[in-house]
């Protein structure tokens, strides 16, 4: 039997010029494990940010509906498309 692997990736990007910065990757064995890793990585990232910058990540961490949406995007990628977890524009 073939096992499926779900590639997880956390990145940050700058709004001005679109540069991206890798913040971690992981291979998960199921959509739920992928979401679990993503929540753990988001928590680690938010711990390293100043409180105002961490606010959007912390809000997502407590949003169960957003977690379900992210899970659907992993399970049905062709229907949902790419899923940006958290977007934050500096100075807004």
From TrEMBL:
Which domain of life does the UniProt lineage start with?
Bacteria
**What is the protein's given name?**
Uncharacterized protein
């Amino acid at each position: 039997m073939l096992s499926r692997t779900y590639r997880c990736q956390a990145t940050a990007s700058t709004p001005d010029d679109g540069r991206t910065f890798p913040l971690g990757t992981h291979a998960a064995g199921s959509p739920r494990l992928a979401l679990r890793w993503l929540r753990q990585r988001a928590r680690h990232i938010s711990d390293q940010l100043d409180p105002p910058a961490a606010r959007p990540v912390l809000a997502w961490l407590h949003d169960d509906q957003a977690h379900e949406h992210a899970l659907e995007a992993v399970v049905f990628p062709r229907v949902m498309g790419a899923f940006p977890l958290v977007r934050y524009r500096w100075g807004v």
